[in-house]
Amino acid sequence: MNLKVCEKGHTYYKSSDCTSCPTCNKENKPKSGFLSKLSSPARNALVHNGIDTLQKLSKYTEKEILKIHGIGPASLPIMRTFLEKESLSFKE
């Protein structure tokens, strides 16, 4: 485990090269919407790729979303449910 310090000065331990600060992730977590229901790695991966709305999410296939580093299969049902609530779906 390596001690790391983020841009805001928070200290945390990580065993990988990941630079995601747990304290910043908690502070930046949305209070509502589909992003609020995803894990920090999945949420960060989507936002980093410019996918921050259900409309943008619906332009991708499930396979394309799973190729994004940080997104695992457990995130798909959550995203699918939120898409369906808005009468949207993943691209076929």
Could you please describe the fold and organization of this structure?
The protein is 39% helix and 9% strand. The protein is mainly alpha-helical. It has two domains: 1-29, no CATH class; 31-92, DNA polymerase, domain 1, CATH 1.10.150.20. Strands 1-2 form a two-stranded antiparallel ribbon. A hairpin with a 5-residue loop joins strand 1 (2-5) and strand 2. The radius of gyration is 14 Å and the shape is elongated. It starts with a strand and ends in a 7-residue tail after the last helix.
Number of strands: 2
Q: What's the CATH architecture of the largest domain?
A: Orthogonal Bundle
The fold-level CATH name of the largest domain is DNA polymerase, domain 1
- Contiguous helical run count: 5
Proportion of helical residues: 25-40%
CATH superfamily of the largest domain: 5' to 3' exonuclease, C-terminal subdomain
How many domain units?
Answer: 2
Distance between the ends: 41 Å
The major sheet is characterized as: 2 strands, antiparallel
What is the approximate shape? elongated
Physical arrangement of strands within the biggest beta sheet: 1-2
CATH class of the largest domain: Mainly Alpha
Overall structural class, as computed from helix and strand content, comes to: mainly alpha
Properties at a glance:
92 residues, mainly alpha, DNA polymerase, domain 1, 5 helices, 39% helix
Put the structure in a nutshell.
By secondary structure, this protein is mostly helical.
Secondary-structure blueprint of this entry?
Layout: E1 2-5, E2 11-14, H1 22-28, H2 40-48, H3 54-57, H4 62-66, H5 75-85
Antiparallel strand pairs: 1-2
